[in-house]
Amino acid sequence: MTPPEAPESWQPRYPAFVAAVLFVLVALTIFYPLFSGQFLAGDDQLGAGYAFRLFGAEMHKATGSIPQWNPFILGGVPFSAVVGHGDIFYPTAWLRWFVPTDLGMTLGFFFHIILAGVAMYALLRGLKLAWGAAVVGGVAYQLSGIVASQMSPGHDGKLFVSSMAPLAFLALLRAIRHGRLAGYGGFALVVGLAILSPQVQMAYYLMVASGIWTLWLAFFDPERRTDRPGWQPVALAAVAVLIGVGIAAVQVIPILSHTQYTPRGPGGPSVGWEYNTAYAMPIEELMTTILPQFNGMLDGYWGQNFFKSHTEYLGAIVVVLAVLGVGAARKRGLLTGLGIIGALFLLVSFGGHTPFYRLWILMPMMSSVRAAGMAFYLVALPVCVWAALGAERLLRREASGKSLLIALGVVGGVALLGVAGLLQGVATSLASAETMATAVANAPELRAGSLRLLLVVLLGGGVLIAIQRGILKQGLAVALLALVVAGDNWSILHHFAKWYPPASVTFADDEITTAMRKTPLPFRALDAPPRTGANVYIQSVLMGYQVPQLLGYFGMESKYFDELMGGKNEWVNILNPTFWDLYAVKYFVVNQDVPSVPGYHKVLGPVSFPHLIGRNARVNGLAGFLYERDSTPQWVRVVPAAAKVPEDRIVPTIIDPRFPLKSFVLYPDTSSIVSGGGNQTAPAPTSVKAELAKWQPGAMTVKLSGTDTRTTYLMVAENWYPDWKATIDGEAVQTHRADFALLSVALPPGAKEVTFTYDSTQYHQMMWVSWACALLALGLLAAGRFRPRTNDA
Fold this sequence. Notes:
Blueprint: H1 15-31, E1 39-40, H2 43-63, E2 69-70, E3 77-78, H3 92-95, H4 101-126, H5 131-142, H6 145-148, H7 156-177, H8 181-196, H9 200-219, H10 231-247, H11 249-258, H12 273-276, H13 316-332, H14 334-350, H15 356-360, H16 377-395, H17 401-419, H18 422-430, H19 436-441, H20 443-468, H21 474-493, E4 499-500, H22 503-506, H23 511-517, E5 524-527, H24 559-564, H25 577-582, E6 585-590, E7 600-608, E8 623-629, E9 636-639, E10 641-645, H26 647-655, E11 664-668, E12 689-696, E13 699-705, E14 712-719, E15 724-728, E16 731-733, E17 736-738, E18 742-747, E19 753-758, H27 761-786
Helix pairs in contact: 1-4, 1-5, 4-5, 4-7, 5-16, 5-21, 7-8, 7-9, 8-9, 8-10, 8-27, 9-10, 9-14, 10-27, 11-27, 13-16, 13-17, 14-16, 17-20, 20-21
């Protein structure tokens, strides 16, 4: 029997517009709570991201500029010169200048889920795929687990980069294959924006992948131009990368300069093999690409990592379509072009689970990062391209019925094994002793997930078979194919969207924050260290109330602060009263009644939080107690004498209760400061008194009264960084790192006023570089629009 003719490729009258509407509708299946005022917030955003972004937005509204210093966590940290504070220079930050911070953050996720679909659609159309296939590929990518599930941890930066990745590939395609100058400008803009996202590591991966794509386009693309040497577009692409890095110079160059002062600097705790290989993707978790319940989702996760808030789910139907698309990909050269990228970043995502990572970690800057599993988005991207090719073959009825049935049968077989309970034995055999209980408890979820997968194979596979046999045609075939892809992936990904009441409710003041906020700034609050389990507020939540906290959650704080406090996240010295004095701790917060806190008295407690439990995760426990210092803490103070000692002796000396904190300040023996009076065993007190006349984040004015014929030393309860600048009576002086971590200056006799300003000269220089490179990229983009194509596009 002769099969009926394959239908012509169908598309609507306004293909791009209709595709964009479809991607918006797909995103709305997850984001519809946005329109009832709810707040999409992942774990890290509740604990820190919201506070960071609120601070940046409010400071910009108040001053008209992006703040450079954040005094509200960990003794003070640079705001714009270290990674971790979020999308400071990325366009989503602009949203928060005009709309509430919680709405701006939610819209950032919403727009980028849409962008992921649109960008993939544009790339597929650039690769000359039919409209229906491009739509299916776009839906597959925007709902790919590694892309969309970043909602759960609140890692919007990962979503930003992965959503732009197809645009980088498209820009290079137009630049190299079609000879469009605008493509290089577009590529430079994507590189710049990717680096300016909060995820420099993801941007790094994208640049490596773009380099491979460039080489393929220049030397191996079957449609490559032959009228020019291949090195020419490679050189132009390299120039575009440099322009892109230049666009991000305002952020990336200061970060490189400041990393040495953070835990990721030389000798810090956040380096080394154990750190670098943390949160990679274990090889057995490849099963989660079609059955995410195998390793457990969210709280049910039992794998090798400490926890897991995302998923690498590709989609059962997407994987089947990708299998069908392999032949077409081979004919177009895309199996090689994208296959190398996919294979490389699959190995990268495995991290230390394969020997390959020993080589990868030798790449520049890779020894300072972790969580290599995030590289899996560059596996999902090729798979979605191949799935689109498979969809095109299916819609054109070129796909083999036998291949389709085999692919469906394999996935269906996995589902049947899970439904029968046979996969549970595999899971428990892989679980460690520590995770065995969780793996056993996950058995019902694994069976239910397998049943879901079986239904997807039966229903979705039925649609695929109907299309392959010509029962469904044209628009209906495209619609149902997109629907089964979206429905399959949505059935997993909607679990990763965590919605909360608006920030005005979720972060509403309670009795404790209300009491502390009545105190004029500056002061510090110490919430009990998380390792004790007695903390009230999680991570950096207090910062969101404009309450400076001594600890907090960040990752790129001062390494000197970490060591002073007894080690990053350990803080074994934190209960030493000396450090409460050094950092002007006025309030102590704890979730249990403490019989006696020397020098402090209880002002509130127990304060209950029953309305918050189950609605957000900003508090740890049901009750809180607030203790206030009996005396006024000193943000600035004058010390009569100084001593220079070896670096490794400073912290042990300060810890010693016999150390006369009010008489001596300690400087490392490498300091350039001249320590007068350091040989005195008991220096006479000084009559010079310091009063904080003006304070705001990154700027202070200190008035001095009294006289002393000696050089004295002004101590400030904020961390030292080299970009702190000071003047004494209008004359610039050098700042110094005192008592291991704090800001100080030496005071000459007769000094009356000291000003401190955190202001990076490099920041201002790089701002000009960034603007110049952005204009250059836009110029290339505009010039390319008016330059005739040099070959058929």
